[in-house]
Specification:
About 10% of the residues lie in helices and about 35% in strands. It is mostly beta strands and about 160 residues long. The chain has an 8-stranded mixed sheet with strand order 2-1-6-5-9-8-7-11. It has a 3-stranded antiparallel sheet with strand order 4-3-10, with no helix packed on it.
């Protein structure tokens, strides 16, 4: 199955983020989206947070009460293997948007609303060190910078176009 955008999510700050029908993606992120703690989140190197739906489904199967958007991601993908994601990869989203993965997301205490053990389920010292062999790799999502903005719709293809690694 080719990878695609399952859901696009925004909020006025905090969790969860809610689905929208389309997004204008800019170097600062999605129009209409805000961060609760802009001194920690956001900025051009963390303009977008991407998480695989399969990771969310895995965590939900472990008993965490989450669905797409719950973890604060802007883009929920489907068919994109989280274990293959690497910093420096560039993806074309739909016809216009290009993003570059900048770093794994280090989960914050806001996720504790879904269970105090969730942060340990999705992130460990190996992920922090950039070790993609961690069983937790990609569960917390990846931040990305926007290389080229544009309009984005759910169902848009997600295609790896370059690896800067």
């Amino acid at each position: 199955m080719p990878a695609s955008i399952y859901q696009i999510n925004v909020s006025q700050g905090g969790l969860p983020k809610f689905p929208i029908e389309e997004a204008v993606v800019t170097p600062h992120g999605l129009q209409g989206d805000s961060c609760a703690h802009p001194n920690i989140h956001g900025g051009p190197m963390q303009a977008v947070l991407l998480i695989a739906k399969e990771a969310i489904d895995d965590l939900a199967a472990r008993g965490y009460p989450i669905t797409a958007g719950s973890l604060g991601e802007n883009l929920t993908t489907v068919g994109l293997d989280r274990k293959t994601l690497r910093v420096g990869q560039r993806y074309r989203l739909g016809q216009e948007v290009i993003i570059e993965l900048t770093k794994p997301r280090g989960p914050c205490g806001a996720l504790d609303v879904y269970g105090t053990s969730l942060r340990q389920e999705v992130y460990d010292s190996r992920v922090k060190a950039g070790d993609a062999s961690s069983v937790r790799w990609g569960l917390s999502g990846f931040y990305a910078r926007v290389v080229q903005g544009g309009l984005l719709l759910p169902g848009a293809p997600v295609v790896l176009v370059d690896q800067m690694v």
